[in-house]
Structure formats: C-alpha cells, structure tokens
C-alpha cells in the first residue's frame, strides 16, 4: 500500500485558511498527518499556521481551544511570534468581555519571545474599554512607558472611555495632553470628542470643536461625526441647524445614510413639521438612499402623532410594495396610536391581520391592545386578548391588571370577573392588592356565593 504524502507546513496553512468549520480546523491543526506510519519527526508549525488557527478559534469564541494553541506556541522555542497574533487574541477576548484573559496574555507576551509595543498596549486598552474597566485602563496607561510611547490610537481609546463614563473634562485634558506631547489628533479623536459632547447635549461646544478641526487642523469631519451632531441637534429641537448640517454633508459629496434621514424625519414630526418631514423622505430617493424599516417606522410614528392614520396605513402598504417588510415595531406603533385615539376596533383588526402578513405579535403588541381595550371599557374583548396572552406565556403589566379588575368591579360583571380571576390566578399574574380590591367589592355587594368562588380562585 502506498504511503500517503505528509502534509507540509505550507499545505497546512492552506487547509486551515479554506476550512470553514473551526472545530475541524482545530483538529487538522492538532494532527496534520494522522495516517503517517511510522510517526516521523515532530511537525514544524509555521507562524502563519498559528496565526490562522488563533484567528479562526477566536472568531468562533472557542477560547479554551485557542489557549491550547497559545500554550503550544509558547513552548515552540523555534519561533518568535509577531505581535499581531497577540493583538488579535486580545481583540477576541475584548469582544467577549474577557478582559482578565486579555490582560494575562499581555503580561505573558515576553514568555512567547515577543516584545510588547504600543500596538499590544492599544489592543489591551480596547479590550478593557469593551468591558468598561475604566480604572484598569488608567493603570495600563500610566505604566505603559516601560513598553512604548502612546500614539493617537492610545489617546483615542482613552478619550472614548472618558466620554462613555461621562467624564468630558478628563477627555478634554487628554486631548490637551496629547498635543503637548506632540501626538497629533486625527479625525477619530475629534469625532469621539464631538460624539461625547453631543451625548451630553453640549451642541455649541461640539460645533466649536468641529470648526477647530477644520480651521486649525485641516481635518474633515466624517459622515459618522455629522450624523452624531445631527442626532444631538434633533434631541434638543434645533431642526434648522440639523438640516443645515445635512445640506453641508450633501455639499461635501458625503453620503447621508438612512439612519441620519430617519433621525431628521422623527425630529421634524416631533415639532409638527410633517410637510418638511415628507420632503426629507422624498429626498432620500433623489440621493439614492433606500429607506429601511427604521425610516418607514419613523414615518408611521410621525403620522400617528399627528393622528393621520390613513397616511400611516399608506406607509405600511408602501413598505410592502418597496420590498421592505414591516416588522413587529411597525405594527406596534400603529396599534398603540389607534388605541390612544379610541380606535379599538381598527387596532384589533390590524392586530389580527399581523400573522397573515407574516409578522407575529409580540408581548408589546398584546399589551398595547389589552391596555387600549381596557381604557375603552371593552372588557369582554380585553378578557379574550388576556386569555390569548396567557396561553402564549405573556402577562399584562401589573398596573393594567389593576385597572382591568377595578373596571370589572365597578361594572359589577361578576361572571366575567370570576373568569378573569381564574385565568390570572392560574398564570400567577395577580397580586395581593388586586385580590383585596375584589374582596372589598364583593363584600359591599353582600354576595356570599360569589365570595366563596373568589376564595376558591385565591386558593390556587
């Protein structure tokens, strides 16, 4: 029988690159030549093979297997692995919020015969940032002079941490420090600071920083920076400025995305400028920006706010025509709007039509309709919806149950009340206050036979 040709290190790299299943790739890596008899010399893994398998296992979050490979790499004295391998591994740890493993790997890098530079420091800082370990980030930063000098990426990560934790003064101090140390801020630096200012509603400061970015540093804001500023302006009702920024983006030949358009549409509806909102929606097509579900939902929500339900229905129909399937949020917005205006029959029809349109009602759909029916004193319909909710494993809000039970008590519909109490008791969805309300009402009516049935339900 012909002896199979052994797999070479180069061939192993090719196999690892093409193998989609990380488990199979790991098994190939562990035993590249399973059929080779008698066993030859130990397999000489290439640095590329280690890099490929660590990347594949890290993306699949197979960290125990990844650490087996790292341990093997540590003991493979022939190799001095490149820093990028450890940067990638720390990146995967960071995404999984395994900051302790990232820090341990960083500390052990010299044992792998690999020198730590600013790249691995930045990878560790980013892993800590994703786990929101801001105090540990400070420790790493203060001690990094042993390995390297901080660069713009280092400061960008630290500034982002300060912005996320609401420490804008610290972010500003870091910005000043990097310039004092001769580290030139880049577009990401300014974008991160502007985003932090917008999150704290400090739009004037954000505009000043944007002006300095262009005038003093010769940098152009990114579409993401513009988008954050537009969202911040919409939150404080400065729609004219937001539209002006959008026009500036178009003038700079930047692509305005659907998220930015959706923000503008929602903001315009909030201040009663639905005609302008419609204009913005129509502009999307002119700028070759296809509206997504979020944009359509912003339109539906806007029309519901101004009580133009016919227009909201038209948007829902238009979504289907434009091959943008309405989601459960689309229906919930409309159901909530109809219920708020006392249009319970229309809300119920829309609710029942959802499954036929390929969209299953969720717990929010049921609760919106149930609350609307209770608010309109449609207790029989509300009881039917409540039973369906319980069957599907949902329950109304506690406050809604109180309102429902109180309404049934006031209406003195004891037969329906008993049915509702039994359903709620079986689902363990009624609290002591609701029971006391019912008992008090029954005692006032002096209906002892009903009292015993309520007691039976309470015993459940």
TrEMBL record:
One Pfam family it belongs to: PPR
Signal peptide: none
Alphabetical UniProt keywords: Repeat
GO MF entries: mRNA binding
GO cellular component, one term: mitochondrion
PANTHER family the record matches: MITOCHONDRIAL GROUP I INTRON SPLICING FACTOR CCM1-RELATED, PENTATRICOPEPTIDE REPEAT-CONTAINING PROTEIN PET309, MITOCHONDRIAL
Name of the protein: Pentatricopeptide repeat-containing protein At1g53330
Species for this entry: Herrania umbratica
Gene name of the record: LOC110419414
